[in-house]
Amino acid sequence: MRTAICPGSFDPITLGHLNIIVRAAQIFDRVVVCVAANATKTSPMFTVEEKVEMVRRVTAPYPNVTVEVNRGLLAEFARQYEGSVLIKGLRAASDFDYEFQMDLINKRINPDLETMFLTADQRYTFLSSSIVREMARYGGELRGLVPEEIIGMIEAKANTQRG
Ligand code: COA
User: Fold this and answer.
1) What is the CATH number of the domain that holds 61?
2) The one catalytic residue among 51, 88, 91, 157
3) Out of 65, 89, 147, 160, which could bridge 58 as a Cys pair, Cβ 3.0 to 4.6 Å?
4) Has residue 106 been placed in a domain?
5) Which parts of 14-146 are beta strand (E)?
6) What is the pLDDT of residues 21-79, one digit of tens each?
7) Which helix (H) or strand (E) is 4 found in, with range?
8) Residue nearest (by alpha carbon) to ligand 1 atom 30
9) Is the CB of 15 within 6 Å of ligand 1?
10) Residue 102, SS3?
């Protein structure tokens, strides 16, 4: 069975992430969405449990997609899925340098681990989780940025954080 691992911070998951996940699910037998618990992002908006809940909700229609949490190195996490590959979305040339570096360090840790890239859908090349967080904090329109099923959760969180 060929497994694709879609890793990320997912703070929160966006339509851009979901687009990559769904396309990977059409190519691979199984997709594991890997939510990083120890991502080096300072002050995340959502807890790991909330991130997982959002990913679960939006991937529920896809039976070959599951969600896992990773608290360690991604390249070590991948070992449990034999022959798995990492799938990353490339939004612009600027993503490439960083992803190239990540691939090299991951291969140092786990030489068998390959990374494959899907180009982002042009509708989402501008999109990132920080744009969503910023929009949410200022009460901006989230439709078209994140899946409808999680808009309420994001707005509720932004309201609490605004106090
Ligand atoms: N659509 C929308 N946004 C996208 C996207 C897409 N297709 N692809 C990437 N992004 C955005 C994310 O939203 C995020 O935005 P933000 O910075 O505004 O929050 C940004 O690109 C970076 O993505 P992120 O999810 O943080 O993933 P990453 O590629 O930087 O990888 C981890 C981070 C968490 C997956 C990875 O570092 C990890 O697993 N770490 C564990 C430790 C490890 O193994 N480190 C590497 C060896 S040292």
Assistant:
1) 3.40.50.620
2) 91
3) 147
4) yes
5) 30-36, 65-70, 85-90, 114-119
6) 999 999 999 999 999 997 677 789 999 999 999 999 999 999 999 999 999 999 999 99
7) strand 3-8
8) 8
9) no
10) helix
Distance 38 CA to ligand 1 centre (A): 11
Q: How many CB atoms lie within 10 A of CB 147?
A: 19
- Residue identifier of the C-alpha nearest atom 29 of ligand 1: 8
Q: Residue 7 belongs to what H/E stretch? A: strand 3-8
Give the pLDDT confidence score for residue 39 in this predicted structure.
Answer: 67
CB 7 near ligand 1, within 6 Å: yes
Domain that holds residue 12: 3-126
Bridge partner residues of 72 (DSSP): none
Ligand 1 close to Cβ of residue 74 (< 6 A) = yes
Q: Does residue 90 sit within a domain?
A: yes
Residue 156 lies in a domain: no
Q: Is 129 a catalytic residue?
A: yes
Overall average pLDDT of the 142-155 stretch: 98
Residue 143 lies in a domain: no
- The verdict on pTM exceeding 0.85 is yes
